[in-house]
Design brief:
There is one protein chain. The chain has one helix and six strands, in the order αββββββ. It is an alpha+beta fold. It has one domain: OB fold (Dihydrolipoamide Acetyltransferase, E2P) (Beta Barrel). Strands 1, 2, 3, 4, 5 and 6 form a six-stranded antiparallel sheet that branches. A hairpin with an 8-residue loop joins β2 and β3. The longest helix is centred in the first third of the chain and has 17 residues. It is globular and about 60 Å long.
């Protein structure tokens, strides 16, 4: 009995240890680029806010990884996103930790119809 309990405990620990950060990755999100924020990036650029379609947890996300060619207010984009504060160094106290995301695979949405 004790041996089975130890085996189950070790198995549980190994399985949990094998989970990866991709569990929080959200693919093919769509949203609208809003404005620069008062958050600075490591390169002393400003971060951007994005209104993500259907995201209920927060009003908008903040990212330091928006590629330069997409830094235009009102632009509709598609992207993958994952919670992260990477790239952000200084930020005002007006934002919550669950608003910070790293985005990747950014594409311009030309026509959604």
């Amino acid at each position: 009995m004790k041996k089975n309990l130890i085996i189950m405990l070790i198995t549980t620990i190994v399985i949990q240890g094998c989970s990866n950060d991709d569990d929080n990755l959200r693919l093919n999100q769509m949203g609208t680029v809003l404005v620069e924020t008062s958050c600075n990036t490591k390169e002393n650029n400003l971060a951007y806010t994005i209104d993500v379609d259907g995201l209920n947890e927060v009003e908008f996300i903040i990212t330091a990884t928006l590629p330069e060619e997409f830094k235009q207010e009102g632009l509709r984009i598609q992207f993958d996103m994952k919670p992260s504060k990477d790239g952000l160094t200084i930020c005002t106290d007006n934002f919550f930790p669950n608003q910070f995301y790293k985005i990747s695979n950014v594409k311009l949405l030309l026509d959604e119809n």
